[in-house]
Write a structure and sequence with these properties.
This protein has 226 residues and is of the alpha/beta class. It is 33% helix and 28% strand. Helix 2 links the parallel strand 2 and strand 3. Helix 3 crosses helix 4. The longest helix has 16 residues.
Length: 226
């Protein structure tokens, strides 16, 4: 099936794209919605502008749509850009990185039903620790670009998801009830390397802002060797 990937540049959408390709789907484009609302109910925001770099190293076409991020109204903007993907690339389905959010999954499914295309959710209800392990096993290099819950703080920004990270978030799940894959908004991520990338990205700069337990990091990245 020809598909478009709802793509934020984070671990979930990128890994969902990888699994879709492994399942035999043909990735025709990446679809990114850039929200002006940092508290968007639907869309990832830290370092979202760097998806262009990821699309380049994936050698995939990228469709970008801006939205004011008004709750529910932002879905109209999502529908519009999916229509563009259907018209330009003939996609027959949308791949999402939805893991447990009923809010996101229901609304995307509703748009797909309206447009008569499939909605594919490769990560749906996957165990969160299993997801993190699979990222490492499949050679994904992922960094933390945002945190939004105690006890995560500024020191977590820029950390790689590795075996030590997994052990720490498992402990925090037991002690504090956080979602180990950040599904409750505890943290956001950015992918520097994975099997879908023809060339690896490297971190060359960062700008951190925030306070208390809400911090974000805008990254600067370049292709390795450039």
């Amino acid at each position: 099936m020809k598909v478009g990937i709802l793509f934020s540049g984070g671990k979930d959408s990128t890994y969902a794209a990888y699994l879709a390709k492994q399942a035999g789907h043909r990735i025709k484009c990446l679809i990114t919605v850039v929200s002006m609302n940092k508290e968007s109910y639907m869309f990832h925001t830290p370092s979202i502008g760097k998806v262009k770099k990821q699309a380049l190293v994936m050698e995939k076409q990228l469709l970008v749509k801006k939205t004011k991020g008004v709750k529910e109204e932002e879905l109209e903007d999502l529908e519009d850009v999916i229509k563009d993907a259907i018209d330009k690339f003939g996609i027959e389905g949308i791949v999402t990185g939805a893991l447990r959010s009923e809010y996101q999954a229901f609304r995307i499914q509703k748009i797909c039903d309206k447009l008569n295309i499939s909605c594919i959710n490769p990560l749906w209800k996957k165990n969160q620790v299993t997801l993190l392990r699979e990222l490492i096993q499949n050679r994904f290099e992922v960094i933390i670009t945002g945190v939004g819950a105690y006890p995560l703080d500024k020191s977590w920004l820029g950390r790689r998801i590795d075996w030590k990270f997994i052990n720490e978030v498992k402990d925090l799940e037991k002690k504090c009830g956080i979602n180990p894959a950040g599904e409750g908004g505890e943290f956001e991520t950015f992918v520097l390397k994975c099997p879908l990338f023809k060339r690896q990205l490297r971190l060359v700069g960062k700008k951190i802002k925030g306070s208390k337990n809400s911090w974000s990091m805008e990254v600067e990245v370049k292709e390795c060797g450039r």
